[in-house]
Amino acid sequence: MAEIINLRTVRKQKARASKDDQAAQNRLLFGRTKGEKLQQAAEKALAQKKIDGHKLKD
Question: pLDDT tens digits, residue range 16-32?
Answer without folding.
Answer: 999 999 999 999 888 88
